[in-house]
Amino acid sequence: MTTTTQTRNAESARSTITTRRRGDVQRWSLTLIPTTKEAPADAEAPSHKLLVRAGFIRRVGAGIYDYLPLAWRTLGKISDIIRQEMNAAGACEMLMPAMEPLELFADTKRDIDYGDNLFRVTDRHGRANALAPTHEEVITELMKGSVASYKQLPLNLYQIQTKFRDEFRPRSGLLRGREFIMKDAYSFHMKLEGAGGLDETYEKMRTAYTNTFTRCGLDFSVVEAEAGPIGGSASHEFMVNCETGEDIILKCPETGYAANVEKCEIGHRPHDFSGDPTGDLEKVHTPKMASIEDVSRFMKVKSPNMLKTIVLARSDEQRGWVVAVVRGDHEVNEGKVKDAVGFPLAMADEAEAKAAGFAIGFVSPRAARSVGALLVVDPDAAQGTDRDKGKPSFWATGADEVDHHVKHFNWRRDMGEFLDSDNAIVADIRNARAGDPSPRAVGAALTEGRGVEVGHIFKLGTKYSRAMGFLVQDESGDRNAVIMGCYGIGVSRTLAACVEMSHDDNGIVWPMALAPYHALVTVMKVDNAEHMAHADRIAGELADAGFDVLIDDRDDRPGSKFKDADLIGIPIRLTLGDKALEQGGVEFKLRTDPGKGEVVAMESIVGRCLEAANAAEHCR
């Protein structure tokens, strides 16, 4: 098992098996495990296909699923680990309602930020409510009415609760549903640094999350991230590494630095606006072609030789425009542009931008000079000379005229002294990608992987407390806005992410810690009383040792039973058949082992299973 953070509290190193005093024993015939050969027609993600086929979940409606007994057991184990680590980190569990009055959003305006993703419900009295996607407003209102003095802080409260998000197109089973199970925690402080400060709790949560996902047996990375619609400053995501993941993770192979695409920094890239023109400006009629792809094909110019120009507007009380320029094959990163200019921004309103003189869709860097905007250029676009070819850079860009572009744009000729003014900035303002220079090691290049986000921690600051008037008297007697942190884990998402990470052609391969049962006892002759007696005795002994055991007592063909065993992914399979019993033993096989199993003596089976469980614990 590899993680970007190898530190782990000794107190959290609890054995997978010995966490329970006695394990559970269940018979297949007495539970509901509706395995199928066919996956749903709309299933694309491996976890969606396998969790349905293995009888863990069943679709009720778009993005809504039943959690069947096997899934519920695994979800319980994930939740137990989360609770243990959260409690050990000083957090306290509570429960908030799934439905919240929409009036709570009046001050934070998050109902506007969430838009159509927020489920809105009107009751019989005409009162507007929302099915909660998260609970920042509810917890802030609670604390506002309960905490009056700094002496009551810090506090860290959490819950495990069903959440809702009205996805336009639910997909990938539990990975992108409309109803999901989440652990969310909220911490409250009077200061950032020092004992009791947000920074201290944030680091405790980062450690608790690292412990949680390590104990779950997941291969994961901790990556720097943007805060997104929740808001805040510092932010880290916990991503399960898997080839089928929907998120891109960029890493420095030398230092272990990792970040998502929106947050990843790019190392130093030399830039120089100087260079001779490649020709006179040549205007080209490009009717109804506002996209780089369309213009590139029409003009027979490769996208790396295009300049992509985006217009943004200040979103604070001051008005103003920012023109951001990147290479045509790159994407502008709004967060990086905000960092570069030092004030809040948003995409420009098209009508207002046109009224100011921007030919939206056909804007060139020259518009910054003519309109009086701040120009921010990415280093890869700020090139007057092609360093690789040793000759002037050829650029095509908008003509600042609707339905027209130009060829042979030259930075120095066409922008002049404006490039040397305070209104022109060169900065990293694009999304990173594999092969870019590492921001942490000179000479190293970023590598790309994929993952599924299962956890996210934020430093919220005073975003919610200030908006909702949650002020507390400090040691000096002054009333100040409380500083907050927010920490989420997708519980049902973790279940799905584990399957994305760990499966093969035959089915799911559960890590020991999350398997609904640790051992599966498969009885070949269920009508043989002696065989069933052996199964019950072995299951009981294993349960006494802390194992959860499922007995396959179905009257079915051996081949069908073995296929189902592989499909549901129980880590240890014990087969009671004539050959093994004649040798005084049981066939022992790990789900991860190819081929046939080994015969283990009856008196040694518990020891052999404990050995396998301890080996699985050691691998994490």
List keywords for this structure.
YbaK protein, 16 helices, 34 strands, BirA Bifunctional Protein, domain 2, disordered N terminus, Rossmann fold, 6-stranded mixed β-sheet
Plain-language structure description:
The protein is of the alpha+beta class and 620 residues long. It has three domains: 71-97 and 132-265 and 449-500, BirA Bifunctional Protein, domain 2 (2-Layer Sandwich); 282-426, YbaK protein; 517-619, Rossmann fold (3-Layer(aba) Sandwich), CATH 3.40.50.800. It is 25% helix and 26% strand. Strands 4, 8, 9, 10, 11, 12, 13, 24 and 27 form a nine-stranded mixed β-sheet that branches. A six-stranded mixed β-sheet has the order 1-31-30-32-33-34, sandwiched between helices. A five-stranded mixed β-sheet has the order 17-15-16-18-23. Strand 25 and strand 26 form a beta hairpin. It is globular. The model is unreliable at 1-14 (pLDDT under 50).
